[in-house]
Every structure is written in C-alpha cells, then in structure tokens.
Amino acid sequence: MLLLSCSRLTRAFDRGPLFDDVSLELFHGERVGFVGPNGSGKTTLMRILAGQDTPDSGDMHLHAGARALLLEQHQEFPRGRTLFDEAKSAFGELLRAQEEMIQVADQLSHTTDESLQKTLSVRYDRLSELLRNNDAFTLDHKVETVLGGLGFRPEDNAREVQTFSGGQQRRLLLAKLLLASPDVMLLDEPSNHLDIDTVRWLENYLVQQSQAMLIVSHDRYFLNKVVTKIFELHDGRITSYPGNYKQYVRLRDERFEHRMKEYEAQKEYIEKQEEYIRRVHYGQMAKQAQSRQKTLDKIERHEAPTRVESPRMHFGSVMRSGDVVFQVENLGKAFGTKRLFEGLGFQLQRGKRLGIMGPNGCGKTTLLRILLGDEEPSEGTVKRGALIHVGYLDQHLKMLDEDKTIIRAVWPEPDPELTEQRMRDLLGRFGLAGKIIDQPVRECSGGERSRAALARLVVEGANVLILDEPTNHLDLWACDALEEAIKEFDGTVIVVSHDRYFVNAISDLLIVMESGKVEVVYGNYDMYESLRATREAEEAAERKRKTTPAVSESKTTTSSTGTKPAKRKRKFPYRKVEELEKEVMEQEELVAELETKLALPDIYRDANLVKETMQDFEDAKEHLKTLYEHWEETMELNG
Which of 179, 249, 506, 513 would be 90's cystine partner, CB 3.0–4.6 Å? Predict the structure, then answer.
C-alpha cells in the first residue's frame, strides 16, 4: 500500500536550489536508505516529508489516517519527568484511550438511564477494541524492552531526563519514535551515539517492523543489514536502486558505465553524421545531407551522465620505519577502582592496519594516549619501533588552528620545498579547492575540517597514522576515498572507529574493547562477527548440555521427610517416561538450533525469515516448558 508520495518538489535557499523536481514513493513495509553527499538536502527533504518544512513548489501526499514522524536531533523535555514516563508518553493516544475507558466504565457503573447506558457501552467496546488491537495492556513491557535494547539500565528508568547526557537524550528520542510506531518512520542518523551492541539490537528490531521507513545514515554496515532499497539524492534529483547498500554501489557503478557508453556511442554517431553533412551539404549530395540533418534533429540527445565524485585522497610516500612498530605486552589501565582493560598484548608490524572498537568510556582513547606516550599504563609495557613518526588525528580536530585559513592551518610553517601550488594540489586531493581553502577553519563544516586534518598528516610526513573516529564528519564518498587511501598507504595505521564497514574494510588486526575486558582478533570485523556467532552457538550448546543432568537429578527428588509426596491429579495424558525424555532432548536440540540461527548476521537481511524464526523460537521454548511439566508429572504419577 502506498503510504507517502511526493512529486516535483523544489526547495531552495540563498545559495541556490537544494533539489529540483524531486519525486518519490514510499510503500508499506519498505525500508529505504536515503544517501547523498553532505549538503545535498537530505535532512531538508525529510523535514518536508514530516510536515516541518514547506517546499517552494510540488506536491506531497500522506495516505489518509497515516502518520509520519521524524527522528529529532534535539528536543526540550519537561522538567521533573522520569526516563520511563517520558518514553511512555510516546503512547499518547493509547494512554488517553485508557483514561477515557476508565471514566466510561465509572459512568456505566453509576448511571441508570438506559439510553445513556447503551451509548456508554458502545463507546466502552470501541475503546476496548482499540486498546486490544494495539496491544495496549502491555505498554510498560514495551517501554522496558525498547529502553533496555537502546542501552538504558533498569535503574535508569526512575532518573529524571534532565540528568542524562545529550547522547542519551537522543537515544530517548529514538526510543519514543520506535514506541510511537508511526506508519512512516523518518530516521535521520538513527545509529548515532549508539555502541555496537545497541546498533545490532536496533538493526534486528527494525527488520522485524512492518512500517515504511526512510533512513538517512552514514553507517554503511547498518544500511546493508536493514534497508531493502536505496534512494540517492544527487544533482537535485532522486534515483532509486533495489537492494541494500552493497547492491546499490554495484548497480550505481553499472548504471553509470552503461549510460556513459550510450552517451559516447551517440556522441560518436552524431559527430560522424555532422561531419558527413558538412562535406556534402551542397551539390548532388545536398538532399542526402538534408535528410540526415532531419534525422539528427529528431534524435533525443543523451546528457553526459554524472555521479558523485569522491576526493582522490592519498597520503603519499613516507620514510620506512622499523619492522615492528608497537610491541604491547600485558597492558592494563585503571583509574582508581575503575578498571578499563587489562592483559592486552599484540604486535603491530610495519604496513599493517589496526582497528579498535568498543562503546564510549571503555578506554579506546586512553589506549591511544598510552601508545602515543602521553599516558602511563597501570601495568604492562609498550615498546615503540625505530624511526617511527606518528601523526595523530584526534576526533575533535584540535590539531587545526581555528583562527587560520584552511591552507595556513594545514601548512602552518611554509616550507621552500613545498610550494603554495603543491599545497593547493594536496588540498585538492582531499576535496578542498577554490575559495574554501582561504576560509577560516572555524567557518568550515565538520567534513571540511576532517579532510583538512587528514591533509595536515601528509604535510607532517607521518609514517604511523593514529586516527580517532576519522569518519565522524565524512559523507559516504569521502569514507570510500579514505578507505582506499589507507589501504594504499606505505606506513602503519591505527584507527579507532564506530564505523563497522570502515573498520572491516581496512583492518588486518582488530581490538574489541568492552567494559573491563578486551579481545584481540586476527582479522577484520567480519572475522569478529563470525567468532562471536560461533561463541554464542557454543554457549547455547553448553546451556543445552546443562539442562540434561537437571532432568536426571530430579528423578530422585523426595519430600524433606524422606517419603514421596502425595500424588496429584493428572494434567497431561499418560505417556512413558522414556518417550518424554527422548522428546525433551529433541526439543532442546531444536531450541539450540533456532538460537544459533538467530545469532547469524545474514538472517536479518530477510525480515519475513527473521519473524518466522523468532516465532518458531518462542513456540519451541514454550513447548519445551510444557514438556518439562509433563515429564515431572509423569515421574511423580507413573511410579
């Protein structure tokens, strides 16, 4: 069912049009990723679809009775309200219906007027049906589930919203939108401020929902897992591609190549015909020339295809360092009684790329500072290799003087060997050209600052790059370019990032940090996910193994007096103990198999398969519970 459509939308600001003649359709059940370069107008278009902005021209239609809600970046919360109450306020209509039903019920119990009783009874039935259809009698459970999934602890529920950080408040806004469950979810960077486990929960949650979704995200791994279609906003127009982000990249490139071949073939044909017409436009062949000219005039000319151009980032050649850049043994760090990590050991060789991942506050930046020598470890050693020259990009980009222009911030002390033209060429490689390079750093966007900081590392000649969240402000195309630049770099790279796609693309070695513990993975993020799935499958098998002795032990259970308890009445039909024990074991194997299946990442690409598997899992667990009860009864009554 078509839920939202817009046609020929145009929106412009002082600097010119953001988009022109944009049209799109969004159907029930579609999860659409919305991509485009920074500044192309994605957020503006989302605000128009949510009714928070007005287009200069064009039409927008929302299906009658349907709701579209936009994930806000910031919001003022009422003072004194707790986290739980604020999250529950997302059910505004249902809460009002509950209150009204209580009032109607009270009126019904006191009125003696038959006509009024009939009216109130009809109203009560309608409210009851509304609440029942929306599963409104389990609202508290829904709130607890979503808040827990988004990383809030049970003890947080009673805290006032004002006491939470900005990132936590944004997670609350996401929780409210998920709980409100509008027909059209407009999600603008929903995975921001979430750690890996929370993003994984959100991915699994979204693929199980039936609403239409339009999702703006720089998280390519997230887009791969969640979306079923991609809208690309480029040159003021939207192009639709089926599939997830990986399929979009392939189809986008294939489409560009195909259109380029068509354009070049037509251009070559037209040039040949025009050359022929010029040569024979007079004399005996003039009629043929006129005929060919008429044919050319009727041809619909192809426009030269365009695509979003990625900056051609490159870190250049650097001095060779020693073969071992960092040798880390039994490293640990604690602040007072708070232990960040311990027992960390790894060797980073020249030319290798190390990725570091983990939730906020787990010690990632502290580890970087220890490697840089700016922080002392609580225990363990860090040995630095010979001839290493470290370049450090901190996530707040403090290396750039905000009062200087881009070119002077990147080139603070002009070097006779590095001319201004070479500096301009270097900045151009990182997508900074024209007037922007003479603009003060403080007036630049986050993406422009990030690219300038990366260019500064080239000027410094660093052969060991330590990058703290380098993709934070980069669009998808700049992220692609940075990945390629890192893979081509002759030196060594250490990257801290929440961007799983980015880490997966560049890592030879991965450190995954959690609160108080750390894991070294010899591979990339896909390898880590594979190891995690295997580990969870083994834990599920171990849980299954532990349930078998419990059944056996309970065979000899007696009352505290040493005599068998009195037999109870049968709840289940008679069956042999051996038959039941065999069925219990088979059912336990089925539960473990389904649990393992749900741990596999690929399953979440198919929303229907996820729903079916989760339903099978819940049914299997419920049946196993019944079998346990049947077995206990059989052991007691068959003796």
Answer: 179
